[in-house]
Specification:
InterPro entries: Kinase-like_dom_sf, Prot_kinase_dom, Ser/Thr_kinase_AS. By secondary structure, this protein is an alpha+beta fold. It contains 8 helices and 10 strands. Helices cover 36% and strands 18% of the residues. The strands form 3 sheets. Strands 1-5-6-4-3-2 form a 6-stranded mixed beta sheet, covered by helices on one side. A two-stranded antiparallel sheet has the order 7-10. Strand 8 and strand 9 form a beta hairpin.
Length: 257
């Protein structure tokens, strides 16, 4: 069965859900951008789920094996159109990055059975987990190396007119024995120049003051978040302000004023 026939079968299963735009998103990913897909009747070509490795507001991440290679499989938390479309939106944003970069998450396949996608697996886990681990013994050289890689990833995104808007340690993964950093989770990413950006997006603890106050902001908000991560690395603690019970919004207003 070719992709057009399989795509038609998928669309037929979505007919009853008149409130979703999954059809348009799949059309863009599969037919316009020619992203490889999983939906094979051949049992020897099926994806093997190994174990769950993470979860977020709309998605669950699983460690999987497909065609003798290990991937991270991000799938919707539920079959609700909001969950499906949120992940397909993220997949589209990843395919906006047409060139590969060693520190940017890469998408390999769309899974038509789950409406999820397969991406790089980073066996070192998140930077946050590594930093708060009492047994981690990273050095100043490691911190500078990670900070440089993150800055290079952001410079690359900005050169492609893409703003991440949620640069934080939870969205930074490690691999290659903790030497290589990968920026992930593009659910809040947006194209620069499409519209006036004033909406409050991101995580309070790393949010730039102009984003927090819903005033006009640019890609410089990513640089502010980079500086927070850099400070966390140097201080070897997650809380960048040194006061665990402090309201992040309160501190941001102090910084702004």
């Amino acid at each position: 069965m070719d992709i057009a026939s399989q795509y038609s079968d998928i669309l037929r299963t979505l007919k009853k859900d008149k409130y979703n735009d999954t059809r348009d998103k799949l059309h863009k990913l599969l037919l316009e951008r020619k992203i490889p897909y999983l939906l094979s009747p051949d049992k020897t070509d099926e994806m093997e789920i190994i174990k769950p490795i993470g979860e977020g507001a709309f998605g669950i991440v699983q460690l999987v094996r497909y065609r003798n290679r290990i991937y991270a499989h991000k799938r919707p938390r539920s079959n609700l159109s909001k969950s499906r479309n949120s992940l397909l939106d993220e997949a589209i944003k990843l395919t906006d990055i047409v060139e590969t970069h060693p520190n940017i998450q890469r998408l390999y396949f769309i899974n038509l059975k789950t409406f999820g996608f397969l991406m790089d697996y980073c066996c070192g886990g998140s930077l946050e987990t590594y930093i708060v681990d009492s047994n981690s013994t990273y050095t100043l050289t490691d911190a500078l190396n990670w900070s440089y890689q993150l800055a290079d990833a952001l410079s690359f995104l900005h050169s492609k007119q893409i703003m991440h808007r949620d640069v934080k340690m939870q969205n930074i993964l490690l691999k290659d024995n903790y030497q290589t950093l990968v920026l992930t989770d593009y659910g809040t990413a947006t194209q620069l120049g499409r519209s006036l950006l004033t909406n409050q997006v991101g995580t309070p603890i790393i949010m730039a003051p102009e984003v927090c106050t819903s005033t006009k902001y640019t890609e410089k908000c990513d640089i502010y978040s980079w500086a927070i991560v850099f400070n966390q690395l140097l201080a070897k603690q997650y809380d960048p302000y040194g006061e665990p019970n402090l309201n992040p919004f309160g501190m941001i207003f102090k910084v702004r004023n």
